[in-house]
């Protein structure tokens, strides 16, 4: 490895590092001239030791202009150390922030793709929660957002143990040959962030009835469609969760996987489902199915409407409507279609799985796309209650065994009556209620929230799908939420990250406790207030969806701060607080401000509001 050390005072740290086994090629530098540096106590001895060991020693190196000091073939370092940077003398926090900013931007040109930057700071300077005691934010060096502006994330932080470095002596207090206190000092380790996503328009091909069609993917879903999390060669924790649940269920029931060729698009309006929760799709020009082909495929695509209501006579009536197609929000209608055709074996557990799409508000556990696992079982009438209990007991047993296999996770699994959750319903459970009556909610909690989050629902099929002999029961599970709770993932967006460090933590077939590679990500708060169009109900879900689109899922929270109605005119004004934060990549202050400006423009254009 090639190691670069910057801002060395007496070169004692470099000399100790150079003597360590396996360090690699060391390049030690300082800002002062050789004459100035050699005058510090012990520096001359350390410099000789470095050169005798084959290390390079450079002087008058400006840490904000690193590219200028190295030839093109020598600019890639695997590790860069900068211990206790300081502008010198009595420079304040603002000047030292500027020094760090110039340093991090300079590092982009000399750091290897998977290299590390180590910055040691005195206690309190960094401004992270790891500093104890923690300074007021304005009085810290704000190292994480400063690094984020250059494209780096804080991946690790640990105490700087000066006593563990043989021969190390800190020096340079106020630009003098004096030591300073390093008790409680912290070493901040930064790595490169993945590049910002570029959302170019994307077209997707799928089957609609008996015809192949294409459509433009909604921008908010461009990086989430066709990701293949459930494919056979995937090591994603969502797939592992599904496979382990299936294995547990197969111990009690014969199991049949029915997930292949499930249509991605549906036609007409979903019965009982809120219009604003749906991702409506317009087919690419010239690809709308003809009347004959559409009528042949209605059984497969018009699944949410009352069965039998759409006939060939009214197909022509619905065809010209532009927003008649939508991405599937649930797999339940596919199961109901199979039930209606009696294409199932009583006593055999039918398993459906795949991504489903729902517009929703922004919260850490509300996702516009997730992977649903739907299990359906036809049982003899009169045995449905015992079969439901057997099904749920098996899911609970499997979940408990998965929890026990992951150190650090303490599960709390409960089955709750449909009437007991009330206002505690999360977005998943609330949407499921729109699809039909629910008998039980399956909730999984982990400390410090043992009350649990709803990850599944259990229901019996409506009477129209039953027979005199058989009753159909089903359980719908949110695999993404389950994987999050099992692996200790606090933000759903992490499941969809493009950063390879996520999947590296999950060998195929294993679930482990997730360790974040982006610590203390900076957040940026902006307010937006506007007048709502007269006589119109404000669509808050559309507001949240627009924020997702504009920010590329960088908005972590939206809170209503104020609602005001103007006396006399009756005009209504709303004020929302929008918090921008990424869970997996660098987000700088300027980038967040640009997102806020685009958000304001899009609000006027798409929601018709008047900004204040």
Automatic annotation (TrEMBL):
Repeat recorded as keyword: no
GO molecular function annotations of the record: ATP binding; phenylalanine-tRNA ligase activity; rRNA (uridine-N3-)-methyltransferase activity
Example GO BP: translation
Keyword Protein biosynthesis listed: yes
Location in the cell: Mitochondrion matrix
One annotated Gene Ontology cellular component of this protein: mitochondrial matrix
Reaction catalysed by this enzyme: tRNA(Phe) + L-phenylalanine + ATP = L-phenylalanyl-tRNA(Phe) + AMP + diphosphate + H(+)
EC number: 6.1.1.20
Matches recorded under Pfam families: BMT5-like, FDX-ACB
Top-rank lineage group of the source organism: Eukaryota
Enzyme's top EC category: ligase
Chief localisation class: mitochondrion
Family assignment from sequence similarity: Belongs to the class-II aminoacyl-tRNA synthetase family.
Name of the protein: phenylalanine--tRNA ligase
Organism encoding this protein: Erithacus rubecula (European robin)
């Amino acid at each position: 490895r090639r190691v670069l050390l910057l801002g060395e005072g007496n070169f004692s740290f470099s000399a100790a590092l150079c003597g360590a086994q396996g360090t690699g090629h060391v390049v030690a530098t300082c800002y002062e001239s050789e004459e100035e540096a050699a005058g510090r106590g012990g520096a001359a001895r350390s410099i000789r030791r470095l050169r005798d060991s084959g290390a390079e020693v450079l002087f008058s190196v400006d840490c904000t202009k690193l590219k200028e000091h190295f030839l093109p073939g020598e600019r890639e370092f695997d590790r860069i150390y900068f211990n206790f940077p300081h502008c010198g003398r009595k420079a304040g926090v603002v000047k030292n922030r500027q020094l760090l900013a110039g340093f991090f931007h300079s590092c982009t040109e000399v750091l290897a793709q998977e290299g590390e930057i180590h910055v040691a700071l005195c206690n309190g300077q960094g401004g992270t929660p790891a500093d104890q005691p923690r300074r007021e934010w304005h009085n810290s060096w704000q190292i994480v957002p400063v690094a984020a502006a250059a494209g780096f994330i804080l991946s690790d932080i640990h105490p700087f143990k000066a006593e563990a470095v043989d021969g190390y002596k800190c020096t340079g207090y106020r630009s003098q040959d004096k030591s300073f206190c390093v008790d409680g000092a912290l070493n901040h380790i930064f790595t490169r962030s993945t590049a910002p996503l570029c959302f170019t328009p994307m077209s997707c091909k799928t089957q609609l009835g008996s015809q192949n069609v294409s459509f433009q993917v909604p921008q908010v879903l461009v990086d989430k469609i066709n990701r293949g999390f459930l494919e056979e060669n995937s090591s994603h924790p969502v797939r592992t969760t599904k496979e382990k649940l299936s294995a547990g269920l197969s111990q009690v029931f014969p199991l049949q996987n029915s997930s292949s060729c499930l249509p991605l698009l549906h036609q007409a309006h979903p019965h009982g489902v809120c219009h604003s929760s749906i991702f409506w799709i317009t087919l690419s020009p010239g690809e709308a199915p003809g009347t004959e082909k559409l009528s042949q495929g209605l059984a497969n695509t018009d699944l949410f409407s009352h069965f039998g209501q759409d006939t060939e006579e009214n197909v022509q009536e619905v065809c010209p409507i532009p927003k008649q197609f939508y991405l599937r929000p649930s797999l339940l209608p596919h199961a109901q279609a199979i039930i209606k055709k009696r294409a199932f074996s009583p006593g055999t557990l039918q398993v459906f799985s795949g991504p489903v799409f729902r517009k929703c508000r922004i919260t850490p556990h509300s996702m516009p796309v997730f992977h649903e696992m739907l299990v359906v079982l036809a049982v003899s009438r009169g045995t449905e209650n015992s079969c439901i209990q057997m099904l749920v007991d098996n899911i609970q047993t499997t979940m408990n065994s998965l929890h026990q296999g992951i150190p650090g996770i303490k599960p709390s699994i409960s089955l709750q009556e449909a009437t007991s959750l009330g206002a505690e319903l999360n977005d998943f459970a609330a949407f499921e209620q729109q699809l039909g009556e629910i008998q039980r909610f399956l909730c999984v909690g982990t400390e410090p929230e043992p009350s649990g989050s709803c990850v599944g629902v259990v229901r019996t099929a409506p009477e129209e799908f039953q027979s005199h002999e058989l009753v159909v029961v089903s359980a719908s599970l949110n695999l993404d939420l389950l994987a999050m709770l099992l692996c200790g993932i606090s933000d759903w967006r992490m499941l969809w990250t493009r950063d390879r460090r996520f999947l590296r933590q999950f060998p195929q077939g294993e679930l482990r406790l997730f360790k974040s590679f982006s610590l203390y990500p900076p957040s940026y708060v902006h307010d937006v207030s506007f007048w709502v169009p007269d006589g119109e109900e404000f669509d808050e879900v559309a507001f949240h969806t627009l924020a997702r689109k504009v920010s590329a899922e960088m908005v972590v929270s939206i809170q209503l701060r104020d609602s005001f109605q103007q006396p006399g005119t009756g005009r209504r004004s709303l004020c929302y607080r929008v918090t921008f934060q990424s869970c997996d990549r660098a987000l700088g202050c300027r980038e967040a401000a640009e997102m806020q400006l685009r958000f304001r423009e899009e609000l006027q254009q798409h929601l018709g509001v008047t900004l204040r």
